[in-house]
Design brief:
The protein is α/β, with parallel strands linked by helices. It has 11 helices and 12 strands. The protein is elongated and about 80 Å long.
């Protein structure tokens, strides 16, 4: 076969040589899914024959950088991570992960940026990273990065989030529709994503004509042990009466339930509880937990897919994607029973 010197062969020529359609050629050259290995090889052989130099566009490695506290004890982020791993395996992408401190200093940042400089062809996923300076500096080095479960005002980078606005309203409305007005909110006002849930809780109360009471906000770290201790201490104080608790995640709901049960409150007959996330153990809590489901697997999968797309087309417009959440009804919420309010 003769080579066309000095110009890139057109996809049409490759299609003719390989005996396939132009769209198949384009899909092979862009590493799209759903093409058999034999067909792929046939097209690439024809392309090479015509002097086509494939540019290195397959993503071979992704680095996952996540903040401490979002890894070991937290099934929410573990589930996202598992999904990232599974999707990487599917695409033959190597995955490395690094845990970074909640408060990074200049030296730590420099180390992380150095890693990006050395692996400039790789993809980067920043999970639950609130350090805006680090993210802005990383964006100066690579276009192949995705921000997962962290929100930064007008940071022009691909961002994937669970919805933190509609979900809390679904939760609060579900309680107010069942007559609850005194709704305690267990939350940790440290990360902007959780602060959005808190703002949404306030908005939903206002919409239901319920005055917001700051004394009904229980600030706690969101693991079960912390929430249990915090709720126990709260119940030992002169607290305002409440008939329901909306927890910023399911892990804190576990601790809250335990503390209430030890104080002889029955759930849901005396106090209703609603969680957030729908972690794997939520149906097995006693009673099974009514909660807001976030599709963690989809978040992980979308992050990897976006990096694959971005690797093929570096100039894609950044996206900001929020996944809808849905209310999962189980047994931890009952209509208000005035007689049994916690007071």
């Amino acid at each position: 076969m003769h080579h066309h010197q000095g110009r890139r062969p057109r996809q049409g020529e490759i299609a003719v040589a390989a005996g396939v359609s132009i769209s198949t050629v384009s899909r092979v050259l862009n590493n799209s899914e759903g093409i058999s290995q034999t067909l792929r090889e046939r097209v690439l052989a024809a392309a090479a024959d015509l002097g086509y130099e494939a540019r290195e566009s397959t993503l071979t490695q992704i680095h996952l950088l996540m903040t401490t506290g979002t890894s070991s004890n937290d099934p929410f982020h573990t589930d996202i991570m598992n999904s990232i791993e599974a999707t990487c395996r599917e695409h033959d992408i190597r995955l490395t992960h690094t845990v970074i401190g909640f408060d990074t200093d200049k030296a730590q940042r420099e180390t992380l940026l150095e890693r990006i400089r050395q692996n400039i062809t790789d993809g980067f996923i920043f999970m639950a990273v609130d350090d805006r300076i680090l993210l802005e500096q990383a964006m100066g080095l690579t276009s192949q990065m995705v921000l997962l479960n962290a929100v930064h005002w007008n940071l022009q980078v691909d961002t994937l989030l669970p919805d933190n606005v509609i979900g809390p309203r679904l939760a609060v409305n579900y309680l107010t529709e069942r007559g609850h007005r005194a709704i305690l909110h267990a939350t940790e006002l440290k990360r902007s994503t959780i602060k959005s849930r808190f703002a949404s809780y306030q908005a939903a109360l206002q919409e239901a004509g319920i005055p917001y009471d700051p004394n009904l906000v229980l600030e706690t770290a969101l693991g079960p042990a912390w929430a249990y201790q915090r709720m126990k201490d709260f119940l030992a104080t002169k607290y305002p009466p409440f008939s329901a608790v909306f927890c910023a995640n399911d892990m804190s709901a576990m601790g809250v339930i335990r503390a209430l049960q030890e104080a002889n409150y029955r759930i849901p007959q005396d106090i209703s509880i609603i969680g957030y996330d729908d972690i794997e153990t939520a149906p097995f809590i006693v009673p099974p937990l009514t909660t807001i489901r976030i599709d963690r697997a989809a978040l992980g999968r979308l992050a990897v897919q976006r990096l694959i797309e971005r690797n093929a087309h570096h100039d894609l417009t950044p996206i900001h994607v929020e996944l809808f959440s849905q209310l999962i009804e189980r047994q931890s919420v009952a209509p208000l029973n005035e007689a049994n309010m916690a007071d």
